[in-house]
Amino acid sequence: MSKQTDIAIIGIGVTKFGELFHQSYDDLVRDAALQAIDDASIAMDDIGAAWLSTAFPEIGVFKGRSGMDLSEPLSLYNIPVTRVSNYCASGADAIRNAMNALRAGECDVALALGVEKLRDRQPQDSIVKLMVEYGHPFLQKGFTAAGTFAVYANRMMKEYGVTREDIANISVKNHLHGSLNKKAFYQKPCTLEEVMKSQMVASPLTVLDSCPTTDGAACVIMVRAEDVDHKKHKPIFIQGLGLSVSTGWDLPFFDPNHDFLSFEATQKAAQIAYKQAQITNPIEQLDLIEVHDCFSIVELLTYEDLGLCKKGEAKDLLRGKETQHGGKIPVNVSGGLLSCGHPVGATGIRMVVEVASHLRNDAGERQVKKAKRGLTHNIGGPGAIASVIILSNEN
């Protein structure tokens, strides 16, 4: 497949992430969408189709069950509006669908917006409870995300010499980055000791190794590259997008060949995106990366799955501070999910907004110097679903 730069992002918007009890689902939709529309210098009536990413409408506010919940707060009527849900890859999938509609000529301006309101609920009404009650009748019993990724952490420690300190230092790094991000939930650095002594969730992962449950929204406005007005837009081009569903609920846990050291979905999604963007050496050809650090160990796993280093060498990238701001390949300069939090439907689009800000040289204190190309990564559904998006400021 040839290099793709036919779709451009011309507008971006993101709300603050956090415990936003003072804002409703509709408020968050309006906040992110109006930021993006203003940034794109367009009118609401210019939008020809839209995609709403909400992964869990059943929790809390019961919003996001259809495209209506995007149309109503924006008065965006008489156009196709579609709700997208694909676990933690929902936001990226909304962008993928918007891209395809633009390529097909269905519309000239497309909006992709992700939003989730997860704090307006009782602690008893958790995502874990939802999965147990409505998920697979056998495979979901006793399943938790923390427990799943803890298995990978223990395996990496045994096979590759990853230490407990290595895992905790991902959190230390990302909370340091997050202290520079005014939109992040947590904006305070933490120490190695604080991470390791915080409450245990699933050994060896503690509370500070885990991303917080969060409210938030993010939005992008997209057009075909040929329709960019360079006098009023600061376009960011999508060079590659890969999405893969590589396992089901019974895998990898019941696969005797799975080594618990990688995620096939991430590898497949990266292969697709790299081929489209003509990337053969990602650590040399990318300037920054946002990865899905729902738990600190996932970032280490993703270094290897994205081909930033050989198997077993992720710890060396971290120890050499290569993935810290100012390093060879900065990772999660936004603070990642560990600092920003994880409103599931919004996270993938929030990452795209973050990378786009750096590529525009608009990221303020956390700006990655001379950034020209970046990558976003999401993984969800017990490692079954992953997306990789590659963005560039050059057409």
Keywords:
alpha/beta; Peroxisomal Thiolase, Chain A, domain 1; nine-stranded mixed beta sheet; two-stranded antiparallel ribbon; 11 strands
What topology emerges from the helices and strands here?
Elements: E1 7-14, H1 25-40, E2 49-53, H2 68-74, E3 81-84, H3 90-104, E4 109-117, H4 127-134, H5 145-160, H6 164-178, H7 192-197, E5 200-202, E6 205-206, E7 215-224, E8 236-245, H8 264-277, H9 282-285, E9 288-290, H10 296-305, H11 314-319, H12 336-340, H13 344-359, E10 373-380, E11 385-392
Parallel strand pairs: 2-3, 2-4, 9-10
Antiparallel strand pairs: 1-7, 1-8, 4-7, 5-6, 8-11, 10-11
Helix pairs in contact: 1-2, 3-13, 6-10
Report the structural category. Answer: alpha/beta
Mean pLDDT: 93
CATH architecture of the largest domain: 3-Layer(aba) Sandwich
The CATH class of the largest domain turns out to be: Alpha Beta
Q: H/E series, N to C? A: EHEHEHEHHHHEEEEHHEHHHHEE
Low-confidence stretches: none
Strand order of the largest sheet: 3-2-4-7-1-8-11-10-9
| Number of helices in the DSSP assignment | 13
Radius of gyration: 19 Å
The rounded distance between the terminal residues' Cα atoms is 17 Å
- Coarse morphology: globular
Record field, number of beta strands: 11
Helix content: 25-40%
How is the CATH topology of the largest domain named? Peroxisomal Thiolase, Chain A, domain 1
> What would you give as the CATH superfamily of the largest domain?
Thiolase/Chalcone synthase
Largest sheet entry: 9 strands, mixed
Tell me the fraction of residues in β-strands, as a range. 15-25%
Number of domains: 2
